[in-house]
């Protein structure tokens, strides 16, 4: 894996996509549409028939975006989903059952596209990933749970229990209300896309849960800091201060 | 609520029956004559009061029935009573002799002829048979306070053919003009005829409505038999009975007792679902009854009792067995049968006259309650089966309408339209075929095997287009005209395709149908080799809904008489073997 690869939203040039879909013709249709839409320059566009095949692929290849059929071989997709959303790539669900959409969003997927695919809708989903530079944005997703890996097992954390998130190399570190921390495999840019609006990026290395923010501290030299309810003080980046002030007032 | 009604019903019958018997008690005096002297021969002097017959042999008294057993004479014979006292109490009403016997006779009171029954004679041809039961009024001036003598000149050629000991019962009684006592004695039987007759009609009409209810059939037969038996029992009270008809009556009582006992056992066996015991139970009861015939051949009355008792014992044995199996209703029936059985011993003397009816009323009401409950249960099962069928219908429909099926098909179709319009037309045809057949199947419990196979072919063709694979079904069919539940093989194939991935080179399913021994048909459906390791896990677990659909459909037609086995075979292949009877139950 290339060290300089930043993933979508942080300057990725070539997209690596994996489609997990047990129906050949559906996968073929989806591949063709993705290529035709051309939202991203594509480095690879692969197809796995099953989760097992997908796992094999993920062991050897880096993936930026996963298209997942929720109804794989009759198995309950949500069991698999909780594991997948903990990973360092974004997931778009493709499914015939639109009644599963709400729940899928709560699990932290970036979009949900119904079958059969409408090119415009698919393009919209692909473009959601392409929001580079819009670092002032608040959370754009609907996730209520974040999957985290603890000694190989997936545990679901309620997003409202997160106080703030800080960058930790390629990953992120979630700091929870009870003071414990957990590593999440997605980076901050990826997380902003799936977290709900109450989460706000305040620094290149910090996202905060505004529900727990108290006030902005103004320091000499135009340096700003944010004080949280439980007393923690976090740095605020210059590019974010305007937006943050608006939201807190 | 239901239990309360049951208890009230039984209580009512328990109270009503003894009340009915209580009416039986006559209030006027009567006296049974037991000291009867017999003499074969014929002498007019033997009618006279003054004649001394004390050296004649005395008739044997049949204690339990208060009868005298008398000689069946070759020619004419005489009976004379010991001198009788008539108490003043008798004077309250006209005094009569009540005579019950199978003989033809002339009867004298103190030498005066007071009546005749038929006409006695030395030869069979000249004898005129009379009636079994008679009343003869005694002129009041002929009655003395003491030393009265009854003399009977009789013959019994007609009676001989009945092979029953000749008995006579003579009763001196103060007698009302209307024979109130006589009728009152039969009130329990009258009540019984009404109640049991109504029960017979009730169950008969239910059986007509629901032909498959064997329990109702046996109860109809049993209650009809008991009703007819009771009618014969009470015939004496309603009409004068000739000897010939008396014999028919006795034979009828025996036949109806036997029939009722048989039907009772068949009901009990059916009710407790123990029909496998029927040969054992019925043969032993019949053999025992048959064994009794030599002993009681000349006494149909006792034979009737004995046969009925044997059948009650048989029914009681079956019920005891059912009780040990904790079958529903076994306790109630066991108690009722035990009571019924005990009444044979307790009330033997008057058994078929009164106690019998009380015991029968209790037994009948218990059977009524049991059968009513069985009806309720059957009703519940019927409506459940109906619900289950509706659910199966819905399940089948849902599978075809579920988004996963339709949306994946449409997605694949839109891809084919763009890449190969010809293939997309074929795919639409296959989809239409599948929907058309499924629509034809809706509401059917059985469809022809040919149609079922057409559905499988259509589905495989559609799936071939959906997965750009080459699926097909090869069949080896022995009886194409067979009927099968709708969409069972279609479901198994669909299940296999949902839970597995097959190689692009070999997508062949195989269905073999063959006739096995014992009139059964076996189907073996084999899938192509799967290329996914996890297929066994998903086949075993994930196929739940589809498999239970297939099993429920088989169960609906053949109940438990089918077998369903599946497992791996060969190279990652899955084989399902279904065995069903060759015949579909009507």
Describe this structure in words.
The complex is a heterodimer of chains A (249) and B (586). Chain A is an alpha/beta fold and 249 residues long. Chain A has helices at residues 24-37, 51-60, 77-84, 101-106, 119-128, 188-194, 238-248; strands at 15-20, 42-48, 65-69, 90-95, 111-114, 145-150, 153-158, 162-168, 171-176, 181-184, 199-203, 206-209, 213-219, 223-228, 233-236. Helices cover 27% and strands 33% of the residues of chain A. In chain A, the strands form 4 sheets. A 5-stranded parallel sheet of chain A has the order 2-1-3-4-5. The longest helix of chain A has 14 residues, at 24-37. With 586 residues, chain B is an alpha+beta fold. Chain B folds into 3 domains: 2-24 and 185-378, Rhopdopsin 7-helix transmembrane proteins (Up-down Bundle), CATH 1.20.1070; 30-178, Galactose-binding domain-like (Jelly Rolls, Sandwich); 402-581, 2-Layer Sandwich (Heat Shock Protein 90). Chain B contains 16 helices and 18 strands. Chain B has helices at 2-22, 157-160, 180-184, 187-209, 214-238, 243-271, 278-296, 300-324, 330-346, 351-401, 403-419, 421-441, 449-467, 488-499, 535-542, 544-558; strands at residues 30-33, 36-40, 60-62, 67-69, 77-81, 95-101, 104-109, 112-117, 133-137, 150-155, 167-174, 447-448, 471-476, 483-484, 507-516, 520-526, 563-569, 573-581. In chain B, the strands form 4 sheets. In chain B, strands 1, 3, 4, 6, 9 and 11 form a 6-stranded antiparallel sheet that branches. A 5-stranded antiparallel sheet of chain B has the order 2-5-10-7-8, with no helix packed on it. A 5-stranded mixed sheet of chain B has the order 13-15-16-18-17, covered by helices on one side.
Overall pLDDT metric of chain B: 82
Give the biggest sheet of chain A. Answer: 5 strands, parallel
Largest sheet of chain B, if any?
6 strands, antiparallel
Corresponding CATH architecture of the largest domain in chain B? Up-down Bundle
């Amino acid at each position: 894996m290339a060290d300089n690869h930043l993933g979508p939203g942080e300057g990725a040039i070539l997209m690596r996509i994996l489609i997990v879909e047990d129906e050949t013709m559906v996968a073929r249709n989806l591949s063709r549409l993705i290529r035709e839409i051309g939202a991203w320059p594509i480095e690879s566009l692969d197809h796995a028939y099953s989760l097992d095949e997908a796992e094999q692929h993920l062991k050897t290849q880096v993936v930026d975006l996963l298209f997942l059929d929720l109804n794989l071989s009759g198995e309950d997709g949500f069991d698999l989903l909780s594991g997948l959303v903990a990973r360092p790539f974004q997931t778009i669900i493709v499914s015939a059952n639109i009644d599963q959409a709400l729940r899928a969003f709560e699990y932290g997927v970036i979009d949900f596209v119904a079958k059969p695919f409408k090119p415009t809708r698919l393009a919209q989903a692909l473009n959601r990933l392409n929001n580079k530079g819009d670092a002032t944005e608040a959370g754009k997703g609907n996730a209520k749970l974040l999957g985290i890996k603890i000694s190989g097992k997936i545990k679901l954390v309620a997003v409202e229990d997160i106080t703030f998130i800080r960058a930790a190399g390629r990953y992120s570190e979630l700091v929870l209300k009870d003071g414990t921390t957990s590593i999440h495999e997605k980076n901050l840019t990826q997380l902003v896309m799936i977290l709900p609006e109450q989460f706000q990026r305040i620094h290149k290395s910090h996202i905060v849960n505004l529900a727990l923010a108290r006030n902005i501290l103004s320091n000499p030299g135009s340096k700003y800091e944010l004080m949280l309810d439980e007393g923690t003080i976090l740095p605020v980046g210059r590019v974010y201060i305007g937006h943050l002030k608006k939201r807190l007032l | 609520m239901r239990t309360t009604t049951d208890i009230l019903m039984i209580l009512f019958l328990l109270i009503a029956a003894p009340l009915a018997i209580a009416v039986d008690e006559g209030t006027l005096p009567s006296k049974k004559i037991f000291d009867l002297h017999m003499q074969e021969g014929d002498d007019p002097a033997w009618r006279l009061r003054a004649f001394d017959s004390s050296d004649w042999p005395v008739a044997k008294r049949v204690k339990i029935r208060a009868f005298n057993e008398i000689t069946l004479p070759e020619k004419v014979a005489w009976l004379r009573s010991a001198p009788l006292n008539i108490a003043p109490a008798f004077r309250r009403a006209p005094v009569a002799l009540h005579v019950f016997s199978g003989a033809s006779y002339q009867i004298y009171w103190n030498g005066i002829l007071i009546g005749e029954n038929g006409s006695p004679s030395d030869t069979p041809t000249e004898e005129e048979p009379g009636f079994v039961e008679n009343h003869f009024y005694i002129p009041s001036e002929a009655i003395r306070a003491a030393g009265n003598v009854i003399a009977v000149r009789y013959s019994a050629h007609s009676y001989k053919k009945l092979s029953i000991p000749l008995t006579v019962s003579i009763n001196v009684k103060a007698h009302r003009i209307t024979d109130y006592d006589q009728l009152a004695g039969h009130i329990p039987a009258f009540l019984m005829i009404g109640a049991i007759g109504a029960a017979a009609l009730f169950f008969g009409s239910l059986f007509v409505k629901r032909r498959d209810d064997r329990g109702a059939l046996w109860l109809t037969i049993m209650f009809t038999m008991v009703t007819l038996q009771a009618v014969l029992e009470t015939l004496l009270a309603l009409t004068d009975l000739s000897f010939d008809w008396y014999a028919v009556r006795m034979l009828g009582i025996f036949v109806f007792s036997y029939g009722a006992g048989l039907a009772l056992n068949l009901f009990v066996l059916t009710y407790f679902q123990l029909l496998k015991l029927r040969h054992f139970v019925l043969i032993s009861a019949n053999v025992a009854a048959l064994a009794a015939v030599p002993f009681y051949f000349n006494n149909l009355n006792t034979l009737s009792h004995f046969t009925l008792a044997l059948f009650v014992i048989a029914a009681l044995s079956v019920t005891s067995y059912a009780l040990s199996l904790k079958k529903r209703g076994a306790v109630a029936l066991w108690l009722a049968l035990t009571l019924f059985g005990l009444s044979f011993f307790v009330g033997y003397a008057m058994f078929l006259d009164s106690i019998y009816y009380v015991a029968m009323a209790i037994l009948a009401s218990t059977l009524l309650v049991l059968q009513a409950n069985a009806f309720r249960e059957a009703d519940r099962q019927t409506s459940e089966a109906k619900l289950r069928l509706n659910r199966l219908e819905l399940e089948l429909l849902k599978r075809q309408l579920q988004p996963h099926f339709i949306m994946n098909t449409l997605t694949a179709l839109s891809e084919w339209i763009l890449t190969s319009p010809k293939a997309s037309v074929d795919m639409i045809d296959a989809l239409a075929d599948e929907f058309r057949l499924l629509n034809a199947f809706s509401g059917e419990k059985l469809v022809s095997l040919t149609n079922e196979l057409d559905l499988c072919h259509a589905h495989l063709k559609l799936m071939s287009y959906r997965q750009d694979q080459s699926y097909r079904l090869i069949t080896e069919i022995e009886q194409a005209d067979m009927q099968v539940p709708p969409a069972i093989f279609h479901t198994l194939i669909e299940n296999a395709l949902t839970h597995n991935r097959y190689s692009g080179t070999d997508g062949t399913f195989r269905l073999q149908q063959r006739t096995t021994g014992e009139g059964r048909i076996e189907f073996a459906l084999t899938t192509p080799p799967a290329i996914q390791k996890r297929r066994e896990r998903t086949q075993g677990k994930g196929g739940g809904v589809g498999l239970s659909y297939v099993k429920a459909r088989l169960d609906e037609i053949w109940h438990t008489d089918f077998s369903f086995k599946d497992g791996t075979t060969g190279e990652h292949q899955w084989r399902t073997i279904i065995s069903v009877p060759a015949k579909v139950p009507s």
